[in-house]
Amino acid sequence: MNHKPIDPIVLVGAAKDFWHTHEVKSYHIPSIHMNDGPHGVRGTNSSAIIATKNKTATCFPTSSALASSWNPDLIYQIGKAIGKEAKAHGIHALLGPGINLKRTPLGGRNFEYYSEDPCLTAECASSFVKGIQINGVAACLKHFILNEQEIERMTINCMVDEKTLFQTYLWPFREVIRKAHPWMVMASYNQVNGDKVSESTYLLTEVLRQQLQFDGVIVSDWGAVENPVEALKAGLDFDMPYMGEYQTETIQKALQNGDLDHEVLEARYKRVKDFSNKLDFSNSQGVNYDQHYELAYQAAVQSIVLLKNDKQLLPLNETTERIGIIGDFFRNPRIQGAGSSKVTPYKQITPEMALRKDYSHIQYSYLNPTQDDLKDDTYVQEIQAFAKNYKTLILFAGLEEMIESEGIDRHTIRLSSYYNQLINIVYEANQDVIIILNNGTAVSFDKMKQVNSMIEAWLPGEAMGEALWAIVFGRENPSGKLSETFPISDLDLPMGPRFKMNETDVVYSEGVLTGYKYYDYLNKPVHFEFGFGLSYSEFKLDNYQLIKKDKRYEISLQITNVSSRKGMEVIQLYMGLDQPSQIYPMKELKRFIKIEVKPNQSRRVAFTVDSADFESYNTNLKDYVVVPGIFNLYIGTSSRRIHFTSQVESIYDEMSIRKTLLGLRENSLCKDFYYYPLTREPFMESFSYLKEEGVFDIILDMPLNLIARLFPDLISKECMDGFLKKVGGLKKQHIKNK
Ligand code: GLC
C-alpha cells in the first residue's frame, strides 16, 4: 500500500526508534535522545526494554538509599553529575527521577523511589531535577501517576479517592513542579479510576497542566499508548518508543478525516519547540569519572543507616586481628536494582575487594553456604563452628536480585527462607553477629529484634565496598535515616501481603495513611520507624523556642554534640491536626535539616512554618487550602523519637484567605463558617443565640441555606441576610478582580 507522505507536523515529537524522536527540519525540531535512568546513565543503545548492554557510567546509590541521606544538597550534586554524564553520551532527556511513593514495602521498584513520604520525596526529587537540568539536559518526573506496584502495571486499574490522589500521590509532583520546574513528565502505564493515564485528558491536561501548572512536555512510558490519537488529544507529546508506522499514520488519517483538529498538533509543536529550546545540544566537556566515584562514595556513606548497636560493637577497631565473614553479598553485592534503571558501573569496588585493598592488615575468613548446605546438618554444624570461632563476625544478608525488580513485586516483607534460616543458624551460635543488609526496601526476619548490631546498606552504588567498611571500622560516622518504615509482619501492611482487590483493580483503601502515617494512626509497633538512624556520636537537643510572627511560626532549638566524634544529625519537624473531623495523619513530615556538629559544639537549628504547611487538599473547593484549627507540632530525630511538641493555630496568608472565602457559599456547611477564623466572629454574632435554643451544635453540620428554612421560628430572614451581608463584605475586601 503506497503510503501518502506524513505531514511534517505529525512527525514533530514522533518516535523514530526506541530512544529517539524524529528530526523535523521544516519545523526546526531536532531529534531528541531520551534514555534512562535515575541512578546513573543506562545509555543503552539496545531496543530491549530491560537491556543491560549499556555504556559505562557512574552507578550511584539507588533512590531509596539516597533519600536515607536526607541531604538534598548531596542529591543535587548527584543529579548534576548524572546530567553531565548524560550529556557526554548525547542524551537530551534523562528518564528520572522516579517519584512514586512506597505505598507498601512490597513494591518491586521501591529501590527506585525515594520514600513513603511525599515531603521527603519532593525535597530529594527537586534537588535531583535541578542538578540534572543545570547541564541543559531534561529531567523527567515519573511515573505520573499511581504506579506504586509492578503487578500487571500495563493494564491494572488503580482506584483512589480524590483527597488521597491530590494530598498524597500528586503532592510530590506538585511540589517538584513548583520548586524545580522539570521539563518532562512521564505518563504511567496504568489506569486511574478507569482512565488510561497516557490517554487521559483529565489527568494530563486538567490535573497535570492546569491544576499542577506543569508547563513542560509529557512522554508516555514505553509502550503505554494504545490509541495515539486519543493520547495526543489528551495532551501527550511523545508516544514512545517507535512501534510501527501506525503511530503516525493513524494521526495523519485522523487529521484528514476530521477526527483530530490541526490545533492539537500545533499546540504539541509549540510545547516540543519550547522543550527543545531548553536543551543544550552543544558538545559536552569530558567527564571525570573518578571524581564521580568519590561522589558516589560520599553518597553511599551518607545513605547507610546504623540500625542497631546495642553493645557498642560498632565501629570495629582497626586493630581487630581477624574477622569471620558469611554471605554472598560480601563477594557479589547488589549495588543497584534490576530493570530499566540498571547501570553498567564505571568501576565497582565490592566489599571483598575493599577489605583487601583498604584493610589488608586484617585477617578474615569467608564462608558462603549454599541453599543445599543449610539442609545438611553436618554443614550447619560447620557454619555454627565457624560462627563460634570468631569474636567479630559479620553476616551479609538481604534481598536476592530478582526478588525486587522492575516488573516484579514481592509477596512478603520477609527475607528469603534461605537468608532467614542462615541468620537463625548463625545467631544461635553467636549472638553478637553483625548483620549487614543489602536490599532496596524494607525487610523483616525472625531474629531482627534479637540481633544487637545491624547496618542497612541499601543498594548503595559502585562505591559500596569502600563506603561500607569505612562505616564498619569507623573511618566514617553513619548519618543515614530510614526513608521508609520497617514493619514487623506482612499482616501489619495496609493491604496485607497483596495488592489487587479483584481481577482488574488495585484499591488505595488506606487513603492518605501511607507508611508511618498508617502505623502511627493504628499505633502499630514496627521494627524501625521512618526517619530513624543511629550515629557513633551522641547529641542533646534543648533550648526549644516557638515564636508566632505575623504570618508564620519560627521554631528554633539547640543541638549539642556531647560525644568525642564529629557527626551529623537530622532534625525533623512534623505537624498534625489536633482534632480532625476526617481521617487525617497524626503527623506529617513538613521540614527537616541535616546538620554536622563537632564534639562539644552547640549549633542552633531554625525552621519557619507558614500557611502552606497548614494546607490540605479540599475536595469541596478542589484546591489545597488551609485547614482551620489547632495543629500539633513535633520536633524529633525520627517520626517516633520526638523531643519537643507544641500546639499552634492555622495561619492564613492572603492567598489562602482568598481561596477559602471563594469556597464559602450559601450552601456551605455552617461549620465551614464557624471554624474559619475570618468568619467565626460574624457567625457567632448572628447565631450564638441558638446555643440557648439547644440547636447550635446541630446546625453546624447543616448547609447554611437550609437552616432558616428548617427553623423558620428560630432563624429570621433578617438574621440570615445580616450574616450573608457580612460574609459578602469580607469577600469584597479580600477577593480582588472578582
Ligand atoms: C520502562 C520503565 C520506565 C523507563 C522506560 C524506558 O518500562 O517503566 O521507567 O524509563 O521503560 O526504559
Tally the helices: 22
Helix-strand makeup class: alpha/beta
Strand order of the largest sheet: 10-16-15-14-11-13
List ligands, each type once.
alpha-D-glucopyranose
> Which strand-content bin applies to the residues?
15-25%
How many strands? 26
General shape: globular
Average pLDDT rating? 95
Helix content: 25-40%
What is the terminal-to-terminal distance? 58 Å
Biggest sheet record: 6 strands, mixed
The low-confidence runs, each spanning 5 or more residues with pLDDT under 50, are none
Provide structural commentary:
There is one protein chain. The longest helix is centred in the last third of the chain and has 18 residues, at 717-734. A hairpin with a 2-residue loop joins strand 7 (191-192) and strand 8 (195-196). The protein is globular, with a radius of gyration of 28 Å. It has 22 helices and 26 strands. The strands form seven sheets. Strands 10-16-15-14-11-13 form a six-stranded mixed sheet, with helices on one face. The protein is of the alpha/beta class. Alpha-D-glucopyranose binds at residues 36, 49, 95, 142, 221-222, 340.
